[in-house]
Structure formats: C-alpha cells, structure tokens
Design brief:
By secondary structure, the chain is of the alpha+beta class. The protein folds into three domains: 18-90; 133-233, no CATH class; 258-402, no CATH class. The protein has helices spanning 3-25, 31-105, 118-122, 133-158, 163-172, 177-183, 185-203, 205-241, 245-255, 259-264, 285-288, 310-335, 369-372, 382-385; strands at residues 267-273, 276-282, 292-297, 302-307, 340-351, 356-368, 390-396, 400-402. Strands 1-2-5-6-7-8 form a six-stranded mixed beta sheet. Strands 3-4 form a two-stranded antiparallel sheet. Helix 4 (133-158) packs across helix 8. The model has no long low-confidence stretch (mean pLDDT 81).
C-alpha cells in the first residue's frame, strides 16, 4: 500500500474513533460542537430564568402600580371631598354673615350704651396718690439695702460646712489657711460659692436701684394720666349738671357713643345752639347698604347673587335711617340731661335740574325723651316708630326717599 493509502487509513481511523466516542458517550457530534452546544444550553437556561424573574418582577410592579393608582384615587377623592366641605362651609358663612348684616343695619337701635350718672361721677374719689421718684428715692434705697442684707444673711445661713471643718475653725481660727484649704477642699468650694453670691448680690445694688426707680416712675406716670382724666371728667360732669352746652359737646366727644355708626360708613355732626341740640346724620347709603342678596345653590357649592328688588332695597334703607335716628336719640338721652333732640337724616339726592348729587334732608325728627322711653325697642318697627314724634318724611317703596324740609 502506498504512503497515501496508509495516511488516509490512519485519518479515517482517527475520525471513526471520534465519531464512535461521540455516538456512544456524546451528542453524535465532534467534540468542538459539544462545547458550543453546552454553552447554548446554559445560555437558554439563563435566559429562561431571566424571563421568569422578569415576569415575576413585572407582575409585582403592576400590582404595586395598581395599588398606588387606587391610593392616589382615594386620596384625590378625599382631597376633593375635603375641598368640597371647605367650599360649602365658607359659602354658608358668607351667606349667613351677609344676611346677618342686613338684619343688623335694620336694628341699630337695639344696641345702646348704659346710662351715665353724672352725679355719681362728681362724687368719685380721686386716684390714689403716687409719690414722685424724688420723694421716694431714699425709701427705695433703704429697701434695696435691706433686700441685699437679707440675701447675704440667707447665703451665710445656707452654708453647710462639715463638722471637722467647724471644729478646725474653732481651734485654730484664722491660722493654717493653706492647710485648711487642702484638707477641707469641699468646704472651701462651698465658701467660695457663697462669697461669689454675696459679691454678685452686692454688686447688683445699682441695677436694683435703677430697676425699682423705673418701676415707680411708671406707676407715677399712670397716676398722672388717671388724675388728668379724672379732673377732666369732673370738669365735664360739673358742666353737664349745670347744663353747660359746651360741656355737652365735651361729653359727646369724650364718650363717643356713636363710633359704630361711623364703622358702618355713616357720619354725624352735632351742634349745640340756643339751648338746643341738633344732629345731622349723613347716611352714605351707598357705603352701608348692600345691593345684592346671596343664597347658596348646588347643595352649598355655589353662591348666587341677585340684585335686591328696588322696593326691598328702599325698605331696608328706610329702616336703617330710622333705626339710626332712634339710636342717636337714645344715646343722647342716656348721656345728657336733655328732654328733646332734633335729628336730620341726610343723603345724596340727584338733582334732576343740574344732574348733580346734593346733600338733602330725607328725614327730620324732633324726639322727646318721655315718648322715647315708653317705646319697646325690641319689637318696634323703626320706620313706623317715627309716627310717635314730630317729623317730616316722604317715602315710597317704589321711589325711596324724597327730600323734605327741616323742622321749624
């Protein structure tokens, strides 16, 4: 056999052996393919594990997302419900306050001050006298010194030395000081602490004096203000009792019983002439009276505003003006010893001839004390009550007030 034949036989034998080995023990492939195949199997197993973990993780994420969406929806619903309740509550308050305001401006006369007894004021004692700082400086200085001395005595009495130290002091008194400090170190510290407190208290004398003098100065200033007010009040009281008309003006300014009418937006002007008190009451209805009514809708979620009908507006306007007139008269009689008062209610009225608004009298009333005191302020109708007094008033629900003349 030639060399080529022998070589071919050897190669076929080698490959046949490999094939037989793989056929019996392997995957019927050559050895290199086995390694590749094994790597592919491992990779597929790894991928299957990854896919399984991915699906499990995705499922968990989806569950978490749905729970979060439910929670967000629940929180949104709670927030919406809370906001809804807040809106309903605020709307309710707004409407109630608006309606209450309309009722209040129609019943201004029901809220008035207490009676002022000028005779009682005249007999009041003066404020208790408070000495000047100059008058009490020596007394304060002695009090401060006594306070410091007492504090020092307390510090000394609180010093609790050991028995041995007390015995040492008794035997040797002021000798062997260095030995005493070393042997009785704790007692020495206590002594030093006490000495520090004593020095601190003694050094605070100037500050204590300054503080006490300042406190007394404040008391003196309060006393001086109270004394001034007392003397002023006595002067006014004497004048009112003597029916001094200037004192009447001082009394009105001093007690200011009509401040809340100004808060509504109306103004007052007093004049005292010829033994007669007259009051000009400037209504300023555009600042005081509401032009709309309010009510809740959609279960309180919305407020509806509507223009108040002309007839209703004019009715409220008339009640406000007449209620204020009753209040002015009541406050005046409670404050001053007078029997009658003239009150002119004024408002801006359009002058059709000029096209301008002008201050005109819309109600002129002369109120008598004896008649007013008989009226039941809780039940009367302010507008109807004007019929009890001499007055000028022209009013229609459809057109409102018409200017009138002042009472003669």
């Amino acid at each position: 056999m030639s060399n080529f034949g022998r070589s071919l036989s050897r190669e076929l034998g080698k490959n046949t052996g490999k094939w037989m080995s793989n056929a019996v023990f392997g995957d019927k492939h050559a050895t290199p393919h086995k390694f590749i195949y094994n790597r592919q199997v491992e990779q597929r197993n790894s991928e299957r594990i990854q896919v399984k973990e991915y699906k499990s993780h995705q499922k968990q994420l989806e569950i978490s997302r749905r729970e979060n969406e439910k929670e967000l929806k629940r929180l949104a619903n709670e927030e919406a419900e809370s906001q809804k309740r807040l809106i309903i509550g605020n709307n309710k308050i707004e409407v109630e306050e608006h309606n209450t305001y309309i009722q209040v401006i129609q019943s201004v006369h029901k809220d008035y001050s207490d009676y002022v007894d000028w005779n009682e004021i005249v007999n009041q004692d003066s404020p208790k006298y408070i000495q000047t700082v100059k008058e009490v400086s020596d007394i304060i200085e002695k009090k401060v010194d006594r306070h410091i001395e007492k504090s020092v005595e307390i510090y000394k009495n609180e010093l609790d030395l050991s028995f041995c130290r007390k015995l040492f002091d008794k035997l040797f008194k002021n000798r062997f000081m260095l030995i005493k400090k070393l042997i009785f170190a704790d007692d020495y510290k206590k002594e030093q602490s006490m000495q520090f407190k004593i020095e601190e208290k003694t050094n605070s004398r100037e500050n204590l004096m300054h503080k006490k003098l300042e406190e007394h100065e404040e008391k003196r200033e309060i006393y001086e203000r109270e004394l001034k007010n007392h003397e002023e009040l006595l002067m006014v009281a004497d004048g009112v009792i003597e029916k001094d008309l200037n004192a009447f003006t001082y009394a009105i300014n001093l007690f200011n019983p009509f401040f809340d009418l100004k808060e509504y937006g109306s103004d007052l002007s007093f004049s005292v002439e010829n033994n007669q008190i007259s009051v000009d009451f400037f209504v300023h209805g555009e600042e005081v009276l509401p032009t709309v009514s309010k009510k809740t809708m959609r279960n309180g979620l919305e407020i509806k505003e509507e223009l108040i009908p002309t007839s209703r507006f004019n009715e409220i306007y008339q009640d406000y003006v007449c209620s204020c007139i009753l209040r002015i008269a009541k406050e005046s009689f409670l404050l001053l010893p007078i029997n009658t008062i003239d009150i002119n209610g004024k408002s801006s009225i359009l002058n059709l001839a000029t096209g301008n608004y002008e201050e005109k009298i819309i109600v002129a009333v002369q109120v008598e004390r004896k008649i007013l005191e008989k009226l039941n302020f809780d039940l009367l109708d302010p507008s109807e009550s004007m019929s009890n007094f001499k007055h000028n008033m022209s009013f229609k629900k459809t057109s409102g007030f018409i200017p009138v003349s002042e009472l003669a």
